[in-house]
């Protein structure tokens, strides 16, 4: 589906002709146009180091494109201080929990910074820790948690602001496969319950196909958009199904030459 086709639907995120160049002159992202519909789960798929995370940071306003425009909810992203924009939740590959704060306190810190009234903190914290199945761990320190529990806390923290857009940068990349499988299914449950727009960066073809409504496939760096693929498999999906494996094989065949450059 072309960007023009997608733009006929209700777009929550719009990326137009974006190029991102590092201070040393190296081009990280080249001429990307992409739309994400309200409530959609979009996966950005590409080989490691291709520029996927760089584009995600630009969508979040953490860096400024050299050229092109990014908007959320029809309003331009102009930098890190985008008070006029709908709130954005960001989940990094590393959990980034403050080690001197409990799980509960880590969530409350974000609520405080986001201007959420203190009277709402307890209810929101409980709601999202429960959604990620770690409410019973709220008084623990990050060092007392497993890797999966820390990432659940990180996702809970991002969701507690009740953002319209959730950006996720390979959040399961450091987890063992058994934990990652469980968390992929939990994440889909959260997405369906919250009706948020999710953009999920990954280099795993199977993960992208399992999670997403659409997959935006990028080249090796500098990142360029090869195509977007609509995933027509019904939900809930089986991670080990023949249908998913067959689709993965088709995608591998299509990107093998481009990724192997």
TrEMBL record:
Which InterPro entries does this chain map to? Answer: AAA+_ATPase, ABC_transporter-like_ATP-bd, ABC_transporter-like_CS, ABC_transporter_ATP-bind, P-loop_NTPase
Q: Name one GO molecular function term.
A: ATP binding
Ordered alphabetically, the record's keywords are: ATP-binding, Nucleotide-binding, Transport
Q: Name one Pfam family in it.
A: ABC_tran
Q: Where is the ABC transporter domain?
A: 13-245
| Designated name of the protein | ABC transporter ATP-binding protein
